[in-house]
Specification:
236 residues; alpha/beta; five-stranded parallel beta sheet; five-stranded antiparallel beta sheet; 15 strands
Length: 236
């Protein structure tokens, strides 16, 4: 996978250093280097970048201010010499935060974090569009239609997928990986051990989701998001 990126920094030396880092990172395709957010705004309108290495303290329009007007699909790695901006940076959903002077090792770690994010998002979109996935079960790949899944149960290193026809598929897989890849919020984690296909839920009672005579718990850790989903789909 290749990520189209851009660098926005009003310090020429810092921008050149980041440019050299981006050039030697195989999965980054540098679309441009800009000395201000205003300059980038004009250029990136025609050549959008998926990832920005964005300085925070810049004249006219700061990196934080610029981040707030970017489309949500544009991801940001902030670069700055001032640590006090870290919390503010994460409020605009930055993927990472690099302190100047930036070593290539730190740059690469942040870039790899972006690569993982885009890879997961791409696969999640593929599953959502194609409406199926393959899982390893009994030394073979088994095709599972997303529309057939009721819920998924985590069992240590395995997961058990419960289908509408009563079939159960066991697979050596991580629950977190499944949670990341399955379309959200169609599939929601309701408990450390359960992911539920929310459109299939028959009812909810006493913090449990009901499938026939099966009750899936809703734990405190996931309660807010799950109940918000039901609230959004409830006719008052």
């Amino acid at each position: 996978m290749t990520i189209n990126c851009a660098i926005i920094d009003d310090e020429p030396l810092a921008a050149e250093l980041l440019k050299s880092y981006a050039k030697k990172t195989p999965f980054l395709n540098l679309k441009g280097t800009y000395g201000s957010a205003l300059e980038a705004m004009k250029e990136l309108r025609d050549q959008p970048a998926q990832l920005l290495f964005l300085d925070i303290q810049m004249p006219e329009l700061s990196g934080i201010e610029f981040a707030k007007i970017l489309p949500p699909e544009t991801k940001i790695i902030f670069t700055t010499a001032f640590q006090q901006y870290a919390i503010e940076g994460y409020k605009v959903n930055a993927l990472d935060y690099l302190m100047k002077p930036i070593a290539y090792e730190d740059f690469l770690k942040a870039a790899n974090k972006a690569l993982e994010w885009f890879s997961v998002t791409q696969k999640q979109q593929t599953y959502a569009d194609d409406r199926f996935m393959y899982v390893k079960s009994d030394y073979k790949l088994v095709r599972v239609a997303l529309d057939d899944i009721l819920y998924i149960e985590g069992l240590k290193d395995y997961v058990r997928i419960y289908l509408e026809d009563g079939q159960r598929i066991m697979s050596l897989m991580n629950m977190k990986k499944l949670e990341d890849y399955l379309p959200h919020p169609e599939f929601l984690r309701t408990h450390r051990s359960f992911i539920v296909h929310m459109t299939k839920a028959q009812s909810v009672e006493r913090f449990r989701i009901v499938f026939g005579n099966q009750f899936i718990p809703i734990s405190d850790s996931y309660k807010e998001e799950v109940l918000e989903y039901f609230e959004q789909h409830t006719l008052a």
